[in-house]
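Feature request disguised as a bug: please show the residue count (237) next to Probable transcriptional regulatory protein SAMN04489866_101170 in the output. Example input:
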Amino acid sequence: MGRIHNIEGKKNKMDSQRSASFTKHARNISVAARMGGGDPAYNATLKLAIDKAKADNMPNDNIQRAIKKGTGDNDSDKFEHITYEGYGPGGVAIMIDCLTDNKNRTAGNVRHLLDKNGGNLGTNGCVAFLFERKGAIAIDRAETPIGEDELMELVLENGAEDFISEADYFEVITGPEDFSPVLDACREAGASIITSDISMLPVTTVEADKSTSSKMEKLLNDLEADDDVQNVYTNAQ
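Example output, currently without the count:
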């Protein structure tokens, strides 16, 4: 099994989550534009944020408003990235990426959600060594016009580190610096992208029993419902 988990869940996002998702995307786009400028051609972080927003069907008007907010002179919103580390039910390692304008509020919320769901907040570095930062692209096998061998050759020529063939999709792993060239090459070839992101992928995974999986699902849903939480990574399989 590949290292990108819950492909089907990502492929079928709930409409009820879309509004909250747009809020998170807008915040991420604004911060990226503020830090690196409003032109995605010269700001890779902004380009990735826009791509992720478009993948969730965020309207272009919303995207442009978020860019303008980030490049404007309004300093009222000062957001910063923070990553929390800890453990979920059954000792599963968990990393939580946040974008916040109030560290005390966010830390309190994250701690509360972990405690409530049988986990606990750890110290910096307690689980980071169990993950590595990689580009991860999932491609729909049935909806992609080129064959497996041709696609594998294409991504490897453009810098991919690994190509994994699953029953319903292909999984492509890249270094962070090669993510955009590989993704662009896939799109130009007509590949049907299910998900694409620079993520913290687990070095190894742990098997979670049925009870732990159920508790982890509840924890992940609670965390992802928090406006400050951008991404959640675990090593549970």
